[in-house]
Amino acid sequence: MRKISALEYNSLAWFLMRASLVGITMTSLISICRQDAWISGIIGIILGFIPAALFIALRNHDNKMNIVQLNEALFGKFGKVVNIILMIAVFVFVQVIFSDLVYFITSQFLYKTSPVLISIIFGIPLVYGLFKGLNSISKTSLILFYGIILTIIFIVLGVSGGVNVENLKPMLMTDGGSIAHGVLIFIAYNVLPLFFLLIIPKCRIENYKMRKSVIIYFIALLSIVNAIFLTLTVYGINLSVLFEYPEFQLLKKVAIGEFIGKLEGILSMEWIISFFVLVLVGMYYVTTTIKETFKLKEKTNKFVIVFACLLLLIINPLIFVSNGEANDALQGPLLIFMYVMFFAIPLVILIAAKVKTFSSQGWQRKQS
Questions:
Q1: H helices within the chain, ranges in order?
Q2: What is the pTM of this model?
């Protein structure tokens, strides 16, 4: 089994953390916390390290096992049930992100084009990427990562001239409950998706260093807070809450000198790529879980991939909704769902793993 580099792994983590910015995190935080949305983001970065540390602990428990194998080792046959539950949870969130991707493109660029057609267009490279496997996915992610960094720098430089900090005033006018709600949203949609990467065993990551992953964690999440900060300081809260995609409106302020403008279509590719990488990694988690849980032979690999992707494409039109219709679900039921599936269950798994290790060590001491 070929390994992926630590930098390739961290580039995947980068995209997973940034994918939910458009249409989910930005819109929700601004509507709930208003001009204090960036404060929820800062607190979310600090508290979000708790689930991030949980995922690191699960990864370090056994270098040779991914989360699917670990569950079966800990819980036996019940581990298969746990794996199926987590797989469905991942698929549900991937479906939400895929729907967000399709709606973003439909509403901002191709409003006369059928969402079904857009879904199919993205479904083709999705199937191809899964056919090629993890190594190709990670290498492509790394190449895109370098381009995205340059794009973000260009955006920040392009809009910095329009920043007006006065637009953040009056500060701290949002009540504590709304700030806390914003923190929960930030962590749920920008930190908890890191769970998907537990499908990659640590032994498959070459020269993995936790320190580098922590650095990527802070840079990626600070870039999200920076996007919120720039949007609020450029447009102010009264305009920002009116935009369906306030972060997209921010791109309209980017120009090269006074001659070249209207670059938002090109610059928004950064978000589309982030959407797509999360969907790709999520579907890799789903297909890998199916194969390992049901002990399918390698020759069935392509069939599983095609089946899972077709299911994604078939379901998407059924739940295709606008941002306004989705906000209630994102800020309520789906938020609870994210914490139960990607925090509470992994926490129970880690506790079970530690208890089993402690019991095994105690038994070995008695034998000696």
A1: 6-18, 26-33, 37-47, 49-61, 67-75, 77-108, 115-132, 134-159, 176-190, 210-240, 246-251, 264-267, 269-293, 301-319, 323-331, 333-339, 345-367
A2: 0.92
